[in-house]
Design a protein that fits this description.
The protein is of the alpha/beta class. The protein has five domains: 9-99, no CATH class; 105-217, no CATH class; 226-559, Rossmann fold, CATH 3.40.50.970; 586-755, Rossmann fold, CATH 3.40.50; 815-945, Multifunctional 2-oxoglutarate metabolism enzyme, C-terminal domain (Rossmann fold, 3-Layer(aba) Sandwich), CATH 3.40.50.11610. Helix content is 36%, strand content 14%. An eight-stranded mixed β-sheet has the order 8-14-15-13-12-9-11-10, sandwiched between helices. The longest helix has 24 residues, at 226-249. The protein is globular, with a radius of gyration of 34 Å. It starts with 8 loop residues before the first strand and ends in an 11-residue tail after the last helix. The relative contact order is 0.07.
């Protein structure tokens, strides 16, 4: 360990080092050093002498002269040393002695330090009084909890009434700089060892640590006015009586009630009130199912009759999901601040933490479109269960997005409903970390554990959490240590697996009664006022229940969490759903191509290899042709011209995994200097956001899905590094993208780019048995979600290019590209029509030419698989009435599109003609990693595809 530097002359030894920072802190018994770089601190024998003395001081501060003791402590605290300190120290010692003050500041510092670091381990966090929130009943030996441990600090019981000088870094003294040892211990225990357990000393920022200390150590900070206490009581009444009402009316229905953590409702309202006070206008929330109905009712303020209507078994219409998965969007006035606030609770599936990145993405988008770069208008709140918070990997993925430039939401407040149990699993069997919240430490988020049966402590912690987020723009965790009064759901029997816990729970006095009794005892409210508050809310629920019986059809608009007003209608009339022409003028194509081929920043040195790529782009532009990379540039650029924001996100998307995109140029001589030519197309254009993501699929796709929810007028794309990399994001695809419209009436325009193709390298559909041929109107639909299988080898394939003629004004997207060669000129002579999609087309065209079958075999490409192009394919099938119909794919039979397209083709021909399969046989692995095996299987199915007698005599 290097010795700390400071500006000092001491015993004739001169320091040669003058760093900007010389700080030292003890974090959980480990020593971390942060210092500047300069010349060596000391040299020669003097250096060794001081270093040996320093190490001796670390072991025992009393082993060195008191002047050196002060020097080392000052250096550790980041203070410069005063050369006159020896004389000052002597005078100070005499002064302290003459006034009866103990000259042992190091002992007081150690007391404070130990409570800072480990006080939370002995805090009284469990409302049941039977468990330790950190899964460990061991009390650290260096914590003062009984008088007999004073000896650890070299102190004795006789020292309790001695007055000690307080460290300058503590706030426990308030306006006093010295206290008796007895009072020091009392104040430390009141701050760190009662109903609040603070974890923050792992944060490597002195300012942030001191901010937290001031909020909790300062005497008298946790005081509430009578009005604040009455408001808290009223909120607790609503929280508990809502659950009681549901239990009375629908005793056999699952609702995943909040009993045991009713304090969560006033906790959330406190966070929102405080945030609104500091300027927040929009709060986006995500949560699991426990307590969701209560949050909808008492935080979001959803109409109660709409909630009660969901319990009606005769409900005629509505969402495709259970009521405790649904979300909501609501604009209202915050009564505490009299300011307008918008609240959005995101719908989510049973995958408890899957909504986390979705919330973050939507929050980022709302901040982006409001120009809220510092997150002072829009914020997110995420609620978690203890078992899921510790167990679900997407929590970790989401945390690691929190400080990335293109993904940060400037701090999220996490509230953990810590039931101290999973479904039926004891936490000791469910996690290896002491607390369920330990995952948050990876981003230096402070963690405030609090006993949920102490409502005032909870409110104070939540208020501080809101201030922290607003002050430092960083995540913070509020861990509500509570219990679950019922089983996992209301029908479950928890005594099977947790008999001790639930025996205690059955005896547990509800938090509402305990807090009401406290306020009645101290005269804050009367018993009559309390009972009137209960009766008032019960009456509200009963009246809403009566109204719900007359409202059999659920209003879907009440359950939208991300509405798109005006998108589907114009002046109250449905907007045309037809697909407009997609082409643009040749001048625009040329301009975009020229910018894509240039470096629009002066004195910017690019890589020589990139210069060749840009020259090739310029040559293609002159020749009026595009490859995939340039075509993508054209598409994105045309949107930017129209004022449509484009966001492209994923692993290595800036350059492109296959080194084809190069949307961000890097100066080869100036570190971190970059240029995005796409943002230099026009003076007035929409912004283009292209951002490499963390190495995450689940979290990042969820984030981009959330971003795409915010606006229909944006193109939001997520690109997998390889097509099969979406496998680890499958939960988002299955639960949000595929089913979100049906379950939650959720609108989304996310685009998935999946690099695809079998190249002899390892890589990792739905079907309808009886599809119906759509009506004419069904052909014209808005495709809100797209999955594009982007190429790999075709990025540089000489034939995979298109002319400007296919992109100029008046052209449109081709859902099907029909045969346009010799076979199309004499369709009645064609013996076989091969339908395919993707890169296999180029293999087929090459093989057809090699076998001289260009007149006998037609090849038609499906550019759009879903929605299936029934109309265009019917034209193709009618064109070749005497030909065999073949579907050819490079994927194995059990993985490609055959099972999807087969019934649809047969529907088109009314089951009168077979559609034969040509491709690889079924296999468990998606692809071989052996190049030769790959080529052999390719050769095999190409031979079958062009063997015109292959299917003669076969039945289907």
């Amino acid at each position: 360990m290097k010795l700390f530097a400071a500006t000092v002359k001491w015993h004739g030894i001169k320091t040669l080092r003058k760093p900007d920072i010389a700080r030292r802190a003890f974090f959980h018994g480990q020593r971390y050093v942060s210092s500047g770089t300069s010349e060596p601190f000391l040299s020669g024998s003097n250096s060794n002498y001081v270093e040996e003395m320093y190490y001796a001081w670390l072991e025992n501060p009393q082993s060195v002269h008191k002047s050196w003791d002060l020097f080392f402590r000052n250096a550790n605290a980041g203070q410069t040393y005063d050369p006159h300190l020896p004389d000052q120290l002597e005078r100070k010692a005499s002064f302290l002695q003459s006034h009866g003050l103990a000259q042992t500041p190091g002992k007081a510092e150690k007391l404070v330090e130990d409570h800072l670091i480990r006080g939370h381990h002995v805090a009284q966090l469990d409302p049941l009084g039977i468990l330790d929130a950190d899964l460990d009943s061991f009390v650290p030996s260096d914590l003062i909890t009984t008088i007999d441990k004073l000896g650890f600090y070299g102190l004795h019981e006789s020292d309790l009434d001695k007055v000690f000088q307080l460290p300058t870094t503590t706030f426990i003294g308030g306006n006093e700089n010295s206290l008796s040892l007895r009072e020091i211990i009392k104040r430390l225990e009141n701050t760190y060892c009662q109903h609040i357990g603070l974890e923050f000393m792992f944060i490597n920022d002195v300012e942030q640590c001191q901010w937290i200390r001031q909020k909790f150590e300062t005497p008298g900070v946790m005081k509430f006015t009578n009005e604040e206490k009455r408001t808290l009581l009223a909120r607790l009444v609503r929280s508990m009586r809502f659950e009681d009402f549901l239990a009375r009316k629908w005793s056999s229905e699952k609702r995943f009630g909040l009993e045991g953590c009713e304090v969560m409702i006033p906790a959330l309202k406190t966070i929102i009130d405080k945030s609104s006070e500091m300027g927040i206008e929009y709060v986006i929330m995500g949560m699991p199912h426990r307590g969701r109905l209560n949050v909808l009712a008492n935080v979001i303020r959803k109409e109660l009759e709409q909630i009660f209507c969901q319990f009606d078994p005769k409900l005629e219409a509505g969402s495709g999901d259970v009521k405790y998965h649904l979300g909501m969007y609501h604009e209202r006035i915050n009564r505490a601040t009299n300011k307008k606030i918008t609240l959005s609770l995101m719908a989510n599936p049973s995958h408890l933490e899957a909504v986390d990145p979705v919330v973050q993405g939507k929050t980022k988008a709302e901040q982006f479109y409001r120009g809220d770069t510092a997150g002072k208008k829009v914020m997110s709140i995420l609620l978690h269960g203890d078992a899921a918070f510790a167990g679900q990997g997407v929590v970790y993925e989401t945390f690691h997005l929190s400080d990335l430039p293109s993904y940060t939401t400037n701090g999220t407040i996490h509230v953990v409903v810590n039931n101290q149990i999973g479904f039926t699993t004891d936490p000791r069997m469910a996690r290896s970390s002491p607390y369920p919240t330990d995952v948050a430490r990876v981003v230096n988020a402070p963690i405030f554990h609090v006993n949920a049966d102490d409502p005032e402590a909870v409110m104070y912690v939540c208020s501080v959490a809101a201030e922290w987020r607003n002050t430092f723009n960083k995540d913070v965790v509020v861990d509500l240590v509570c219990y679950r009064r019922r089983g996992h759901n209301e029908m479950d029997e928890p005594m099977f697996t947790q008999p001790l816990m639930y025996k205690q729970i059955h005896k547990q006095v509800p938090v509402l009664k305990k807090y009401a009794d406290k306020l009645i005892a101290d005269g804050t409210v009367t018993l009559q006022e309390f009972e009137e508050e209960i009766a008032k809310y019960d009456r509200i629920c009963e009246e809403a229940y009566t109204r719900s019986k007359d409202n059999k059809i659920l209003h879907i608009k009440h359950w939208l969490d991300s509405p798109w007003p005006g998108f589907f209608n114009v002046d109250g009339e449905p907007k045309s759903m037809s697909c407009p022409p997609t082409g643009i003028s040749e001048d625009l194509l040329t301009h975009i191509g020229n910018v894509a081929s240039s470096v629009p920043v002066k004195d910017f040195k690019i890589h020589a290899g990139l210069s060749r790529i840009l020259r090739a782009r310029l040559e293609m532009t002159k020749n009026r042709v595009v490859d995939w990379a340039l075509a993508e540039y054209m598409a994105f650029g045309s949107f930017l011209k129209e004022g449509i924001h484009v966001r492209l996100s994923g692993q290595d998307v800036e350059r492109g995994t296959f080194s084809h995109r190069h949307h961000v140029l890097h100066d080869q001589e100036v570190d971190k200097r970059t240029c995005v030519p796409m943002n230099h197309l026009w003076e007035q254009q929409a912004p283009y956001t292209v951002c490499n993501s963390s190495l995450s699929e689940y979290g990042v796709l969820g984030f981009e899905l959330g971003f795409a929810m915010a606006s229909p007028n944006a193109l939001v794309c997520w690109e997998a590094q390889f097509g099969d990399f979406h496998n680890t994001a499958q939960c988002i695809i299955d639960q949000f993208i595929s089913s979100g419209q049906a379950k939650w009436v959720r609108h989304n325009g996310i685009v998935l780019l999946l690099p695809h193709g079998m190249e002899g390298m390892v890589r990792a559909s739905d079907s309808d048995a009886h599809p119906q041929f759509p009506s004419k109107e069904d052909f014209f639909v808005v495709v809100l979600q797209l999955i594009i299988l982007t190429p790999k080898s075709l990025l540089r394939h000489p034939e995979a290019k298109s002319s400007f003629d296919e992109m100029v004004s008046g052209t449109t997207f081709q859902r099907v590209i029909p045969e346009n060669g010799l076979a199309a000129q004499a369709p009645h002579e064609v013996k076989r029509v091969i339908f395919c999609t993707g890169k296999v087309y180029y293999d087929l065209v090459k093989e057809r030419k090699n076998q001289d079958l260009e007149k006998q075999v037609a090849i038609t490409r499906l550019e759009q698989i879903s929605p299936f192009p029934f109309d265009l394919l019917k034209e193709e099938l009618d064109k070749y009435p005497g030909a065999d119909l073949v579907w050819c794919q490079e994927e194995h039979k059990n993985s490609g599109y055959y099972d999807y397209v087969k019934p649809r083709f047969r529907t088109i021909v009314n089951h009168t003609r077979p559609i034969w399969y040509v491709g690889r046989e079924p296999a468990a692995a998606a692809a071989t990693g052996n190049k030769n095996t790959h080529l052999v299987s390719l050769r095999r199915f190409l031979d079958t595809a062009f063997n015109l007698e292959a299917f003669e005599g076969k039945t289907f």
